[in-house]
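Dear support,

Our group has been running a series of protein-ligand predictions, and this particular one with S-adenosyl-L-homocysteine is the one our PI (initials K.S.) wants archived with full inputs and outputs. We had some confusion internally about which version of the output was final, so please treat the block below as the authoritative record. The input we submitted was:
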Amino acid sequence: MSGFVSLVGAGPGNPELLTLLAKRRLVEADVILYDRLVNPALLMETNAEKIDVGKLPHHHKYSQYKINDLLVTLANEGKRVVRLKAGDPYVFGRGGEESQYLKRHHVDYEVVPGITSAIAGLGAVGIPITHRDFASAFHVITGHRKKTGEELDWQNIAHQEGTLVFLMGMEQLAKITSQLIENGKDPKTPVAVIQWATHWNQRSVLSDLANIVQVVAENQIGSPALIVVGQVAQLMQALQPHPALFGQHILVPYKKQSKLFGLLQDAGASVGFFQRGETQPVDFALPKLSVPATLFVNDIIAYRYFQDKLMAAGADLRKLADWQFIAKNHVVARHLKSSGIVVDRVADLASTSGQPTYVIGEQRELADMNPQAAVHLLATYRRLPAEQDLDFADYQTIVFPSSASVAELVSSLSQDQLEALRVLKCIAMGPKVAEKCHQVGLNNVVTVEPSYQAVLTVLKEAKNVDKVSNSHR
Ligand code: SAH
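Confirmed final output from the archive:
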């Protein structure tokens, strides 16, 4: 069986700036070879083997030859291989060379285009690459030539009408600006430099050809960055978006179509996921349904496994018509409601004392409970520990929607990761969750009401406090 290679564009950084086809290829892949500039958040939803072939500017991890060779070897093993590259694979990404190599070795391949940083990176700071008043063309140029000694045609470049965008140019910034000026470009031409465009740590400066080198040095802007030369750059002043949570890098538990992810991203934050372990059903004996009692639902997943068991026994919800339903909190109550059950109460387990009660929940969580005599614990599922391939030092805040998410994450971390996690601000959705954070040694905790809106509000408030304290410095 022969495999297949997809050269896939990952877009400029923001994990939502990905094509639908790229997303599908990532999910379907057996193995993914990815670059240094690729946002690791893109790799969360796939079970593929992941190989970091990221090239650091001076000490290459994988040589281009080795990458080419690996692509061919993996494809010949029959694998679906994704070669994930920043931006668009055919814009300075060596995608052309890889295609030629694959073709020569008779390996089937395709190219999945991506949004190039050379255009979208400018848009991220409010610079339109063309504009009827300022630029009717754009030129994307590499600041890093393949063969040493080979010079760009500076005279030609300096006389082009339109916007000049240099990629891989930061080490050559002084040379680029001086060559443009020497070859006739006005030293007052606006220049913007944008580092890590659309990533959480995006930074940008605006100056002109004569002064940009100094401004970049003062602000300590480095690679990877885009150098934008032309009148359009000045539009950054008026058009740069300033979303409320810009620059915030926030971790949330992984969930497909996570509402929290969407809310935070829309407010300008960059959101990463930590993995939740897989769930597995646990065998348990259904209570005697003909004897009415109380069903205490600890979490909605537990309920789903309970329902599966009910159906497998040839019964359905009607058998529980005389039962009382209690949800542990409003979130569980809401989920139950969307499954067609209006709970009798939202309450603490302690408040159910005296009545025969069946608590359904996750195995490990229930094991921590100390119920009274009339309370029976039914673990309907267990969660396996997940591996966290995360650098916590890259984040500022983590959101915990449930005590289970705290316990699971902490139990899945190495000692070093745990130390790094302790430094983050933890937003606990509800006092119980905060209690769990303290219990496991996380002390930088802010407690909010258990609603996503409350999480958003507290993050915005914290950002405003930061702004005020910065302005007093
Ligand atoms: N294929 C990529 C470019 C690869 S060359 C694309 O289409 O975007 C690598 C260079 O791209 C970096 O040195 C930098 O100049 C630029 N680059 C890529 N992503 C960037 C980003 N998010 N912010 C700023 N520059 C970026």
